[in-house]
Specification:
transmembrane, transmembrane helix, 3 helices, mainly alpha
Length: 68
């Protein structure tokens, strides 16, 4: 049970990192994604923010399991 929580927390950290990198436009990622996929920069930034929120919501259960 604890191993599952640790794996979920590692995946959460990866999602948080990716979301923050996109939301903060690390090394011009938004422009590159915009050129590749055609989505507007505002939508790409919103996607990064949504990834961060998803990761935070997803991390609540594993953290509570580790604490009990």
């Amino acid at each position: 049970m604890a191993e599952e929580s640790v794996v979920e927390l590692v995946l959460t950290a990866a999602l948080l990192t990716l979301g923050l990198l996109v939301a903060r436009d690390f090394r011009g990622w938004i422009r590159r994604i915009h050129e590749f996929g055609g989505a507007s920069p505002e939508r790409i930034r919103l996607g990064g923010v949504l990834l961060v929120l998803l990761a935070l919501l997803w991390s609540v259960e594993p953290i509570t399991r580790l604490l009990h």
